[in-house]
Amino acid sequence: MKTYPTYKDSNVDWLGEIPEHWELKKLGAIVQPFSKRNQPNLQVLSVYRDYGVIKKDSRDDNHNATSLDTSNYKVVHNGDLVVNKMKAWQGSMGISSYEGIVSPAYITCNVIDEDVHSHYLHKIIRSSLIIEEYIRISYGVRVGQWDMHWEDFKNVPILIPPKHEQQAIANFLDETCGKLDTVVAQKEKMIALLKERKQALIQKAVTRGLNENVPQKDSGVDWIGDIPENWEVKRLKFICVLNKESLPENLNKKQKINYVDIGSVTFEDGIISTEYYIFQNAPSRARKVAENGDTIVSTVRTYLKAIDFIDKNKSKYVYSTGFAILSPNKNILDKFLYNQVRADAFTEQVSYNSKGMSYPAINSTDLGRIWVCVPPKQEQEKIVNYIDAQSQKIDQAVTQQEQTIVKLKEYKASLIDSCVLGKIKVS
Predict the structure, then answer these.
(1) Which of 62, 138, 161, 247 ranks highest by number of CB atoms within 10 Å?
(2) With a cut of 70, which residues of the chain have pLDDT below it?
(3) Which fold has domain 23-160?
């Protein structure tokens, strides 16, 4: 890549030298805040770190509820800047390509500088180096509650090349980043397929066994289907104890605990984080305990598979009352029980028997009535070893794909920074 022939000092430490003929302007000279409301019939828009401004109903991973009354939502026009000031530190902002309305908590701005191409502005305000400036000017005790004020945002310096260069930079980044995004999408699709394969592997192993040639019989349970002839089908309550133990009522209120909530557990990684509390300050749902060899299963939205196997370290945590704690009987291997409840045959039964619309949940009695497959103990051990070995291979393949995605995204961010900050010349 070429560089520009001459550079000058920007007098901004984090920008360093910039092309000689580029201008440096503050955001407040380029955009102007406005607040227009009372158009509740317009489509609701949302702001994503990775995508900018999009139609809220175009994705199913936005769990922020839209108000029943949207008359107070702010109007956005095509070409306006929208900033989620609570997540500006993540780069959650962008130029809108839609007419619509957004949360009243967002900052909405018109682009008022005719010398600024909105497509270029979209690129530079979301570049990683400038996002670090948003982090510096955001405030709050906890990261998730940080806020950014317009009075600080308007003073963020923005590099402005001649308009034809802005267009060239935007076009170059569209083309190049588009190719990178395509490769990333292919990698993400591969990861999804690998995870599906892992789930299918678990389902087949715990309901069909490892020998495809053994005689089969009808299990009598639609979700399970045929099973090996020497297997049994039992209610969950007959192969394990549910919720054997909770915290004692007289627990010292000054006791320190590591608390696990439902949102801190995923199917792929199990427990990904804990929250530290003095017991008297802990949520009222922090009551359940688990032992080494137990399995925890979320009883709320179980289809999300917030499930994990408890080892010695995890047995020290305190769990939400939203989990069921399963302690296997002597004829059931602990790891087999863990894999059994991760299978679709189990979670689909739970979903069917759950009650409620937004957060369907199942009570302990109904959970205990869920049907599970029970092979001989020796066969359970072979199934567990097989699932462990095959899962390890799949997990390694997923990790390789994820590492490639990280490198591609890092290269993309570096390329955008280099272009919009004048480190390389594209025209």
Answers:
(1) 161
(2) 60-64, 143-145
(3) Adenine-n6-DNA-methyltransferase TaqI; Chain A, domain 2 (3.90.220)
